[in-house]
Amino acid sequence: MSEVVANATSDAAPEKSPRRRWWERYSSTSPITLTMLALVLGVVIGALIIMVTSATVLDAWRHSFHHVGSIGSTLKITFDNVAAAYRAMLTGSIIDPTLLFHSISTGHGWSETMTPLSETFTYATPLVIASIGVGVAFQTGIFNIGANGQAIMGGIGGTAVGSMIHVPMIIHLPLTLLAGIVGGAVCGLVPGVLKAYTGAHEVIVTLMFNYVVNAILIYALTSTALQLPGQANGISRNFDASATLDPIFGAKSGLRVSYGIFVAAAVVVFAIWFLKRSSLGFDFRITGANPNAARASGINPKFIVLALFVVSGGLAGLAGVVQAASTTHYIDSGFLVGSAGIGFTAITIALLGRLQPMGIVWGSLLFAALGVGGRAMQAATGIPLDLATIIQSIVVLFVASPVLIKEIFRLRKGAQSFQMATKGWSS
Amino acid sequence: MRVELKGITKRFGSFTANDQIDLVVEPGQIHCLLGENGAGKSTLMNVLFGLLRAEEGEILIDGTAVNFANSGDAVRHGIGMVHQHFMLVPVFTAAENVVLGFEPTRSFNRLDHKTANAQIHELSQKFGLEVDPDAVVENLSVGLQQRVEILKALSHDAELLILDEPTAVLTPQEIDALMEIMRSLARDGKSILFITHKLKEVRAVADVITVIRQGRVVDSVPPTESEGELASLMVGREVNLTVNKEVTPVGDVVLELRDVVVRDDRGLAVVNGVSLDVRAGEIVALAGVQGNGQTELAEAVAGLRRVESGTISLRGRDITNLSPREILDAGLGHVPEDRQRDGLVLSMSVADNLVLNTPRRAPFARRGTRNLTAVAANARDLVQRFDIRTSSIDATAGSLSGGNQQKVIVARELSRPLTCFMASQPTRGLDVGSIEYVHRQIVNQRNEGLGVFIISSELDEVVALGDRIAVMYAGKITGVVEPTTSREDIGLLMTGASVVDHV
Amino acid sequence: MSARVDVTTPEAAVPAVREPVGRRRVIGALTIALGLFIIFVFGFGSAGGAHSVVVFNPINLSSGAPWNLSNLTVLTRWWNVVLGLVALALGVETWVRRPAGALARFGVGGVMFFLALLLWSVRQPGPAPIGTINITSVLVNSSAVIMVLIFGSLSGVLCERSGVVNIAIEGQFIGGAVAGAMVDSTTNSFWLAALVGIIVGALVGWLLALLAVRYIADQIIIGVVIVTLMGSISSYLNIQVLAPYPNLNLGNQPSNVAIPLLYKIPVIGPTLFDENMFFYAAVALVALTSFGLFRTRWGLRVRSVGEHPKAAESVGINVARVRYSTVVLGGAVAGLGGVAFIATQGQFQPGITSGYGYIALAAMIFGKWKPSGAVVASILFGVSAYLVQNLQNSNVPISTEFLTMFPYLVTIAVVAGLIGRVRPPAADGVPYQRD
Lengths: 427, 503, 435
What we know:
By secondary structure, chain B is α/β, with parallel strands linked by helices. Chain B has helices spanning about 40-50, 70-75, 95-100, 115-125, 140-155, 170-185, 200-205, 225-235, 295-300, 325-330, 340-345, 350-355, 370-385, 400-415, 430-445, 460-465, 485-495, and strands at about 5-10, 15-25, 30-35, 55-60, 65, 80, 160-165, 190-195, 210-215, 215-220, 255-265, 270-280, 285, 305-315, 315-320, 330-335, 365, 370, 420-425, 450-455, 470-475, 475-480, 495-500.
């Protein structure tokens, strides 16, 4: 570009020998490297937790305390314990080589072989959608910690339309998904309005709103027409067949992975366009990076906050309805509550994916694999599923503190580190 | 106390802010450190005050090498500093601010307010700097806050006082008073390091002037040196200190303010009934010491702050309390006072910043989708026309120098159709080259018939640019005068003296 | 042409007119709404002849009865109308005068609301099987929640005064609770349990400080993730360790310590002077924190770091060290609060802290980042949280789901009416980096 005047100032990089440059490229910390290192640390800490809480391992160590010669077998027991847990996690979330070999050699049992992958994708689908919703908000400098509540509201709205209206599929399915979006958007709008017009900090309001929504869920499932007739428990009516997201390979395949992944793919495409190319997305990014400049440039901050909560809440709501329409086909009082809460996981995934749609896709797959694998591990070894959540949290703690990882692995300061826009209560 | 800096070198990454600087301050001497913005003066002072650590070199006090781990060490060695941005906690009282870090205590670690107040009283008496020790600092005027800052610097028996650009917030009369304080301190045997980029001040008060340019000491000269020579030492080439303006015909009123009242964040009416006209083809410069309501007035015109009463019109159209978007579309060009806060998104590319307030305008977007080709073409055009030095149009605005950041804003504003061009502190913090460039652009616009409204606290700038000069004090216009008016008279208007006769 | 200038008459200073504080209006309106609600729902919503009986003697007289106070029988409708009128009057006053103590008036209105709700819910003839409301036991039982909220909000006050947002209070609670349960069960000493709880809470605080201060990570995100981490660790430990070894989770509770004579005062005595050691510790900590932050050199330095870290550093205060130590201290306080959960509820279970860490955060904001304010807010939130649980058990014809929402809705309303007006420490949540 000949028109561009070359930079004459002193910030041009000083000359370096090729060898040093090679080393820098190797060790300069790309986001992917950072995430992988965080994962390594998470797995290592998880292994330590398994060791110090496993009775077998502890007994072995106690034994070798008295019999010095048995140290070898003690180490083996320790290693076996940890290895068994992680092997179960891997084979349970991706693929079991034994089954794969069996399927290849006999041509049968593909369903069993592919089940772990199918499960991982099934779990990842709503996570991708919800995390993109959270990520869009984060990019604008807003902490939407209420994604879980918004997802539940989306689930309620979607279930109501999916189970209580009876129209052909071509109308019913889109309408159901739309109801989920609307449910989440309405739920997101409340903190949005409060933030825009009273300055209430969204973190507190969205946090509190999660509890409010939990109560609304119970109310909707026990005291409204949504409740499955003839039931005393909190459980909803079933979706009509015309409103469900069916398994791609058919119900008989045994693989649950559903057409929901196409919804997620559409959301990813939308998000990439929205953030990179749309005018509103540009306004969002300006507001997130510098709210003062946004205001001076004629962007209405109130409108941005409202629009943002509609988009973010709507996506969370969509995640909720996709979850219900693709797996259970009903919702109950445990819907997205507690450890099943995709909203909180979405916050961590959004960070893990550096708020970028494709990063979020990979982050969701990783977290879904950890969750699915965690279940398999619990079944195979009795180690609680919570270990997966522990690893997830540790990974995100490290990813959110890139400086720490660099220090641990003695990396150079090369690449730009990822830093969230930080602010206090008053902004 | 004799302070000697020997071979001080301070680097930030690959950038060398101070390069082998040597400096000696004798007891009782007023030593001026003169240099452009970004020459490395503040960095050097932060090194001397223990806030930064130099990579090379040493500091000698009365011949002994010292090593400051933090600024507390520097204070204990008798160094006091009055910071450019006051280091005062706004919600603390004057007394609490002065004793912070060296608090007198009673049993159980309790603060001893009585002793603290007595200390401040004694200091006030000694140096003639009266301050109410129980006043909360955020309620004090800027001048009084500076007094607290000076008291704080003197409170630990400082023998060397560093004053970092202390005059920016003062009226000419207050500046004179400050210089008197400096002289009397020097007579008491205290050494003073006075940092500034203003030539007049240097010559009025200094015993010795050391000029710094691009991180290096250029020369040490006596104050008898002429202003022109000092300027060329500071900049490194001949500097034309005046702006050439042709006489041009003046047209209709484009910006009209009538009895405008604006409140600040605390609810004070800091703009209190301002009326002013800007006509096409003229530059109206609003002078005044910072903090007299100019900032709020500019924000009100740009739609960023509510107008309590009164009207603002743009070529006859009432724009009072319209949204910033509507005011931008009505044709107001706005260079905000704090360019990094309000004018740019530092983490975004130069190209995006060049369409920051016109992203939806054709051809930059169509039906909600941005046309990045058009945005890039626009950027290439403006980068060339306005001589913006950047490695690429995709480089972030944050990677540009201050002068080039300002050029980005000026280019953006001047690239859309305007009725009136308003610039707040258009050259604050810029190097002389950039100042000249921005001034030339502003005068060009006026010559082409645009109405220009400049808000500046630099008297030199106001006098150089303004076709008419309005002076603001305490929320009111105290006078509108010709640029030929003497600096003393403008200075008096800046202190609120009322005008008997004006244009 | 030069202007002639009259030097002798400098312009008067800017008039110090203060903008009317709109938010106080909002708070006034909220209080008025509260008053009207009391009058028409709890007042005229009760039958004309309905009575409510108020009891002042505690149910449990084992540890020593206070001086006797006879029961009070009131006409539900008119008492509630009077209570409502008080709230209404306060609301109107707030609306008109917009006083500085607007929020305190709203608080009094809230107390009126609870009293009226209680009278209304036990009216006879009415829906409830029991026709009496025991004020003393309401307060005594609320004090368990109030106590943990005080620990939590004090932790928040400490951290945020030094400029670090502590959203991880819930995580420090959980850590303290798990550790407290295990240590108490093995040693049978709540003193040791408290000590270990403090250490674990301090460690969680240290983790927050490490990432927030040293590694300049985002404080809100780190806080949220620490809560998730502590929650999953506690749940993991519960399955892997506590379940197979039940003698690690016995669920002992410390006995109460009555303060001679004072415990005999009706209502106040059983509430304040016949409590366990954790309650007294909470009260002592409020006084200590308040004294420390606002009367001592240490407090001045902590606050300077939270308001203007650069100014603090320019006088030789080590910003990072002050923040580190204060956040660790705050974590320790919340850790002690975690043990207090065990002291009042017995065994550890995952979810035992039920989001009180977040409520404590809201209490701290409601209390304007002051220990005394945090106490008032904790009492308000604590009583309402207890009442919600209690009313769910009695047969009050209010949907329990809506009662559950109530404390959260109050928090939202308060935060909406408050933040922006109340000023947090200026550097709260902003990492400080030396150049």
